[in-house]
Structures are given as structure tokens and as C-alpha cells.
């Protein structure tokens, strides 16, 4: 970790989150329910053991990709864009479920208190993104396209914040499963 006050603004925010002990109550509250994933039959898959590396970072491409594509369609006046955007948002919501499960499985393995705190904020930002995109989908379905676009834009901002913190965890903090391709279960 770099000295406080050094590095990029994003790194300073991530470091402040890691050091914020007020997040410990949320970490504690979520630790028990997340341990349920430790006993599910597909846990090794959620952790990425068959792949030899963490599944979660790869899975994030799906909701992010669907939601980003929907946002682009919202910005470009293309024929059929409204309907396609609504479908992409729905696909992103469906993809968010296994993505979140793989992320919670990873988080359950983390021991470092700072990374656990950052993981809770990462999940919160991504959860907010999913809620906003769900609201966007519902607004669009009920004929309130403009409201749907606004909610989708807010969802994209929340997903970007969550993604930045996720990148910090995966790359900066080296959080994630590290299985060799030949490791036995």
C-alpha cells in the first residue's frame, strides 16, 4: 500500500475505504450469510477452480457489457434502439446474479480486513447499479423511456464506481482465487 495522500485520487479513495473501520459492522453482518456459499456443491466453480483462476473478474464482463451497450444505444438514435436497449438491460440483470454469487464466494475467502471492507463497498455499488438498471427496465416497460434512460445512466455511474473498486481489489490488492491449472480439488 502506498503512503496516505499519494497515488491517484481513485487509489486514495480505495485506501480510505480500506481503512474505514465503520464498515466492519457491514463486513460482520455479511460474513455469516456468505459462508453459506462455502457449502454449496458448485462452490469450486464459483471460485474458478476448474479454470485455474478466479471466475468473478471474467463474469463481470457480462453485466458491464450488456449495460454499456444499452447506454450506447440510449445515446445513439438508431432504429429499434429503445427495444434493444431494454433487452440488453434485462440480459445484464440476469447476468448480474451469477456474477454476484461468484464475487461473494471470492469475498468469503478474503482474510485482509481492508480488502473485506473494500469488497463490501464494491458489492454495494454494484448492487445499487443493479437496482437502478432494474428501475430503468421497469420504467421502459411502462412507457417511461426518458426516466428509464436517466435511471440507466445512474446505474452506469454506480457500476463504474463498483468496477473501479473491483479493479483495485483484483489488480492492486491481488484478491481472487489463485489456482494452478493442474491443482487438485
From TrEMBL:
Transmembrane segment boundaries: 54-76, 88-107, 119-138, 150-171
A Pfam family this chain is assigned to: DUF2231
Keyword set includes Membrane: yes
Stretches assigned to the DUF2231 domain: 52-177
Entry keywords, A to Z: Membrane, Transmembrane, Transmembrane helix
UniProt cross-references to InterPro entries, sorted A to Z: DUF2231_TM (IPR019251)
Protein name from the UniProt record: DUF2231 domain-containing protein
Lineage start: Bacteria, Bacillati, Actinomycetota, Actinomycetes, Micrococcales
Amino acid at each position: 500500500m502506498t503512503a496516505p495522500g499519494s497515488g491517484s485520487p481513485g487509489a486514495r479513495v480505495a485506501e480510505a475505504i480500506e481503512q474505514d473501520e465503520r464498515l466492519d459492522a457491514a463486513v460482520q453482518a455479511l460474513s455469516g450469510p456468505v459462508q453459506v456459499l462455502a457449502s454449496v456443491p458448485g462452490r469450486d466453480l464459483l471460485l474458478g477452480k476448474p479454470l485455474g483462476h478466479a471466475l468473478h473478474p471474467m463474469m463481470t464482463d457480462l453485466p458491464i457489457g450488456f449495460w454499456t451497450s444499452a447506454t450506447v444505444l440510449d445515446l445513439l438514435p438508431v432504429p429499434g434502439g429503445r427495444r434493444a436497449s431494454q433487452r440488453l438491460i434485462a440480459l445484464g440483470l440476469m447476468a448480474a446474479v451469477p456474477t454476484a454469487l461468484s464475487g461473494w464466494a471470492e469475498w468469503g475467502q478474503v482474510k485482509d480486513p481492508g480488502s473485506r471492507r473494500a469488497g463490501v463497498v464494491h458489492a454495494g455499488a454494484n448492487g445499487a447499479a443493479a437496482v437502478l438498471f432494474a428501475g430503468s427496465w421497469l420504467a421502459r416497460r411502462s412507457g417511461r423511456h426518458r426516466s428509464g434512460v436517466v435511471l440507466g445512466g445512474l446505474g452506469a455511474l454506480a457500476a463504474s464506481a463498483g468496477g473501479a473498486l473491483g479493479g483495485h481489489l483484483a489488480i492492486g490488492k491481488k484478491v481472487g482465487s489463485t489456482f494452478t491449472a493442474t491443482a487438485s480439488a
